[in-house]
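As a warm-up, study this chain.
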Amino acid sequence: MRGVGHVEVDRALGVDALVADQDPNVDEIDVLRARLYGGLAAILGQAPDAGLIEALRGVSGNDTPLGQAHAALADAAAEADLRAVERDYFELFIGVGRGKILPYASYYLTGFLNERPLARLREDLARLGIERDPRVSEPEDHIAILLEVMAALAERRFGAESPSEQLFFERHLKPWARRLFEDIETEAATPLYRAVGALGRSFIEIETAAFAIDA
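Now compare it with the structure written out below.
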């Protein structure tokens, strides 16, 4: 799902990262995981453009729950109206005053923005060499930023000495990301974003179970 519309941590999301080249020994499964993390980040970081919608139409699925969620997203993209999708994104995440959903860890975990979960995240981002761009007002605990950091960790783009991706996931995504994707599934007005919610929920469930086995 990388392709058109893929978001880079240090470019589209307003943070500066000291990112090493991808480790050539990264497992193929981890590359695929990174692409899914990056794809979800692209869809949630900003309203999709025509190029991203076209890329989503080419996503393939299979008979697994995650594969079925991929296929549903491709089907929704095939029927998507760009203006309707843009409006849905605005109403979900921006709104007049505020959107239906506030996709920030602090809000989901405390009910308020800019709380302790954001402070803990900033400590971990600093260890990765990521610094906030002062020109950007978006808090770093936005779901798209966290997903993109996980993509980089999965591909070891921060280098061999970077913190464990399992630790980052369990600290900053596991406690709330599944609920967020469930809310997207419920609140979205378009089949595309309902499919995004279902895909994200399924992926977070799989990652949670996989990391539990590795623990």
